[in-house]
Design a protein that fits this description.
By secondary structure, this protein is α+β, with helices and mostly antiparallel strands. The chain is built from 10 helices and 10 strands.
Length: 396
Amino acid sequence: MSTAKRVPAPDRNDFMDVDGLLNDEQRQIRDTVRAFATAELLPHVADWFEAGTIPDAPGLAKGMGALGIFGMHLDGYGCAGTDNVSYGLACREMEAVDSGLRSFLSVQGSLAMAGIHKFGSEEQKNEWLPRMAAGDAIGCFGLTEPDSGSDPGSMRTRARRDGADWVLDGTKMWITNGNVAQVAIVWAATEEGIRGFLVPTDTPGFQANVVHKKISLRASITSELVLDGVRLPANAQLPLAEGLKAPLSCLNEARYGIVWGVVGAARACYEAAVDYAGSRVQFDKPIAGFQLTQRKIADMLVDVNQAGLTAWRIGTLKDADRAHHNHVSFGKFANVQAAQRVARASRSIHGANGITLEYPVMRHMVNLETVATYEGTEEIHALSLGQAVTGVSAFR
C-alpha cells in the first residue's frame, strides 16, 4: 500500500511557483539584483519620490553598471549577454522598488543602448556601448513630442542636410534621463524618411529642461529636449535605422521590460497588503480575518501570479526567437491592468495609511498611471491586439 506524498503548501509570495521555472543562473541574477535594490535603493526611494528627482543619477548609473544590468541582454561591447528572462527579472526587481528606477534601467538598456546596438556603426558601438554598460555614460531616447505621442509618424522634428553635416531642429517631450544624459538618440524626419541620430548632449543648440510638478514617476528625471540648429557630422546618423520601424523596435524592447517590471510593483503592493492586514486590528481581530479583505487578497494573489506567468512565458518565447511584437503588447496590456488592480486594492486595505509614503502602495499606484501610458497606451495595445485577432486595423 503506497503512502501519498505530502505536498507542501504554496508560498504566499510565489503561489504558482513562477520562480521555480527559473534556472540557476536566472535565480542568481534575481537574487543579486534584489539584494542591490533592497539595500541600496529601497531605503531612499520614498525620499526621492517626495523630492521629485534622483539626487545622484550618475552615482546610481555607476552602481547599476557595476551590477552589470545595463544592456545586459545585448551581446558584446561590454554587455553581459544574458537571456531575456534574466533581463526581465532585473526589471521586476527594480520596479518592485519603484517604476522610476526600472525606467532608468530600461531607457538606458532597451532604448538608448539597444538603438545603438541594433542600428549603429561599429565606430558608434565601440565609442558608446562599453561606457554605457559600465554606467560611465547615460543615454536617453528622443522620439515622443509635445504633439506626437501615439502617432510618432507625425513628428515635427526635422533633420536637413547642410553640406556633409546634418542640422536638427525640433522638440522632444517626456524624455527619461534627458537632463543627466551624455548622449541622446534622437529621431527626426528627413527627405528620405525617419532617421535616427546620435546627439552628444554638449552639442551647441541642444538643451534639456526638467519637467516639474509631476505627481507620478517622481523618483525619475523627466525632460524636454530642445534642438535648435543642432549641427552634427554625417557619422552621427545611425546607418541602419531607416523608417519608423527602427524606433518602434526599440520601444518593443522597453515594453518587454515593462511586462516584467509591473509584476514587481504588483508583488510589492500585494505583500504590503498581506502584512498590513495581518497586523492591523479592528473590532478585536486582524482585518485579515474579514471576508471582504480576504476577497481582495485573493484577487490580488491571482493577478500577481497570472502576470508573473505571462511575463515568464513571453520571456521564454523571446529567448526562442518566437516572440512577436503582439505577444509583448499582450503582456503590457494585461500585466499593467493587473498591477493597477492590485495597487488599488492594496491601498484600500491600508486605509488612510495607504496614502502616505510610509507604505509603498500609493507611490506604486500613481506610478502605474504613467506606466499605463508610456511605451504605447492601453488603447493602442488594445487596438494592436484587436487587429492581430481580426486582421482589420482600427487605427485609422
